[in-house]
Amino acid sequence: MNAKVNALIDSYQEEFVRLLTRWIRVPSVKSEEEDGAPFGREVRRMLDMAMVDAETMGFMTHVYDGYACDITLGDEAQEMVAVLAHLDVVPAGDGWAVDPFAAVRDGDRIYGRGTSDDKGPALAALLAMKAIKEAGIPLKRSIRMILGCDEESGWEDMAYYCDHAKMPEIGFSPDASFPCINTEKGMLHLLLHAPVSPEGLQVLSLHTGERMNVIPGESIAVVAGGQEIADTVAAFAQETGWDYRAEVVPEGVRITATGIPGHSAYPEGRRNAIGMMLVLLRRLGAQGAWRTLADSYGMEHDGASLGIACEDAVSGPLTCNMGILHLDAGIITCTLDCRCPITADLEGLKATALSHLPGFTAELAETKAPHHVPEDSELVSCLLAAYREETGREAHAEATGGGTYAKVLRHGVAFGASFPEDEDLAHQAGEYLSISKMLLAAKVYANALLRLCAAEEA
Question: Which residues lie below 8 Å from residue 305, measured CB to CB, with a gap of 6+?
Answer without folding.
Answer: 295, 296, 297, 298, 356
